[in-house]
Amino acid sequence: MKEKSVQETGAKKSGKWKAVFARSEVTVLLAVVVLSICFAAMSDGFFTAYNLFNISRTASIYVFIALAQGIVCVVGGMNVSLGSMGGLIVVFIGYAMQNLGVGIFPAILIGLGTGVAAGFLNGMIITKLKLNAFVVTLATSFIFAGLVSGISRGYSYTEIADNFDFVGRSGLFGIPMLLIIALITIAFLIYMFRYTTLGRRLLATGGNQEAARMSGINSERMIVTANIMSGLFTAIAALLWVSKAGSAQPSTGSDWMIISFAVTAIGGTALAGGVFNGLGMLFAAFLLVMVKNGLVAINANVYYEETYLGLILLFAVSLESIKAIINAHNRKNRLKKQQLEK
């Protein structure tokens, strides 16, 4: 009897550990720790305060880029226009400051308004015309990219309002302001998805749209809301990017689409919908920035950076599929065991 109880206790403990390590945020955090140790061993400058400050700033912007993608993934959609949308917002901010002479707060409102309007446009076309999110956002990405080229003519806007770079370049007690903003946003979204009606309705829409409709949820409204939020987070990322860089460059957003999908997938927010993992996305943003930073530190060929990012994304998506297969196999085994015990 004692042996049996010891075995049961051991099985329970191992089950708990398995449950912990099965969580995406835990595995990503472990990957961050392991990579930190590896890069620190290969480069003396990796763990300097200056380098960690820069990593944190970039990762914080990646968080907002990922949230812009993750929020539409929650409802079972996607936003491939995210990068072009970000570029358009940056150009509007730069044009407003340099050519129209507007101040910081009007420029912020212009940026946020552009993001919300672009997200609303995507959401309305998807729901009212019953079109696939991929097709719609692919089309609008070309529209936004064309506007970027037409307005900017390929030139950067360097006459940015004084003190606009305060948030992007300053810190509080050694912690970047960008990271503080990202942490507050993540905390808010975790609360929203766990405890608010809106959050639960967004998750329900992504989990099963038909079932959500049957339970009285206006799924079309949820899809439009998710796309508006996507535009809002894209605008915040664009504003923070300009604040960090100190200029508005029309090339901004060229790599945002792959970053958004990579951070979302690695962080454990299901691309198929119905799942949101804020902490996972936060750690995944740091992981991606550390990989890019570490490749530079070890003198890897930066011309292959997009290849590395693509491989990371493919690996992350593959891991999610492997996890799903393993979970399905485990469920089958448990059912068989229960049937045999009966």
Word description of this protein:
77% of the residues lie in helices and 1% in strands. The chain is mainly α. It has one domain (44-325): Orthogonal Bundle (ABC transporter involved in vitamin B12 uptake, BtuC), CATH 1.10.3470. It has a two-stranded antiparallel ribbon with strand order 1-2. Strand 1 and strand 2 form a beta hairpin. Helix 5 (104-128) runs antiparallel to helix 11 (219-245) and helix 12 runs parallel beside helix 14 (305-341). It is globular, with a radius of gyration of 22 Å. 41% of the residues are buried. Keywords: Cell membrane, Membrane, Transmembrane, Transmembrane helix. One of its GO terms (cellular component) is plasma membrane.
Short description:
This protein has 342 residues and is mostly helical. Helix content is 77%, strand content 1%.
Number of strands: 2
General shape: globular
CATH class: Mainly Alpha
N-C termini distance? 21 Å
User: Largest beta sheet: what is the strand line-up?
Assistant: 1-2
- Please give the share of residues in helix: over 70%
Taking the sheet with the most strands, its summary is: 2 strands, antiparallel
**SSE order, one letter for each helix or strand:** HHHHHHHEEHHHHHHH
The class by helix and strand makeup works out as mainly alpha
